[in-house]
Queue: 4 jobs
Job 1
Amino acid sequence: MAKSKNHTGHNQSYKNHRNGIKKTRRPKKMSMSGMNCKFVRNQAYAKKGMRCTPEEKEERLKAQKEAQKKMEEKKATEKAQRLKELEEMKEAEKLKAANKQAKKDAQAASKKA
């Protein structure tokens, strides 16, 4: 007995393209279902906390800029301190190398004499 046909893709792509293959629409708001409920709840509270009047917003911006300025000053002082330390280390290494060389010279001179 002859085997029967199990599957064919004949004419399917034609039928699909008759109305055009369209991209799916992306949702405007992401679904929260299936997310960690503790995270979702915390996110809602955080969003509620961010709501404020324009005056409060201005105050927050001012405070943020002050904090940024403070951090930049701190960073600059730390950088200056680090550069100073590096300079001192270089100086110390130079002195150490010079002392080592002087000792070598002294030993060489004592061997000759």
Job 2
Amino acid sequence: QIAHPLNPYHYHHHSLTESLKQYLDREWETRTASRFGWGDNLNAARAHVVVTWSHVYWPKEKVRTWLNENWRSWQRHPPKWFDAKWRKKLGKYAPKDLLPKAALQQIAGE
């Protein structure tokens, strides 16, 4: 069965009274579901969120911190999901003020 991000079977804690923004903020620290082949860890799940959902729903300060703290490490030791396609999507849809300088430079050079 394919897991949809809001499928209650897979996300039984999601409440119908909780907004998507609230859900993503809450799940940012614990969610490990991501795209097939990306891994089942926190970074893979976060990578999935930022290229799947509009930035309107992101926990923006958490995303900014996550990108700033990890970008250089990902450049040195890229996870499966940290490819040109993912970076291009992130560069296209993320507010530029959330992206670290290294990310802006790398995306612009690709």
Job 3
Amino acid sequence: LTSAVARDDMVFMAIKMLHLHESFCSDLKPSHVDIGYHYTRPENMDRIRTDGLMTHAERTAQSVGALHNGSVFGDGVYTGNNPFAFKSFGEAGLV
């Protein structure tokens, strides 16, 4: 299995997000944050770390192979706001 994202990386991301939120608030910019969860197979994680999440069209254009779970709502990167609802799409969860 591919290793998970390091705890230090998650802490760094959370701190950066909080600082940006404070900056947006002080600049009177919209500052609402939604968290999205995306599930995938562990074997996709190295490529996601390198290239990020990609639509089917983007993967095709760049010749990136990945198992396609479908596109009921059209081509895109699917996320949900419930961390448990879509675990059937893969064992690796991304925030």
Job 4
Amino acid sequence: WPDLNFPLSSHLESFKAAYAGEEPAPSNFQREVSAMLEQDLGWRHIFEYRTAEGISLDLAEPESKRAIEVDGPSHYLKDVSSGGYVVNGPTQFKARLLRCLGW
């Protein structure tokens, strides 16, 4: 997408700086998942990795563009028709964006 011409592209750096300025707040569950993946499965990864585009990833292996997002309850909404849970809009958008970037 860096080669595309977006109407707000002149503001890209300020948008990126504002987004990247947020400090991650990892949960205990996220820390436990990270430790288990490294200790039990030997998956070496970076905890709270930030991509070149400024997107924060919970656990990432940048060389292979593999990542795991440890999504807790705030990433889901209750579907009133089925009674089940669905991924919320911001989480869906982040997943779609990461796929477009090759993750």
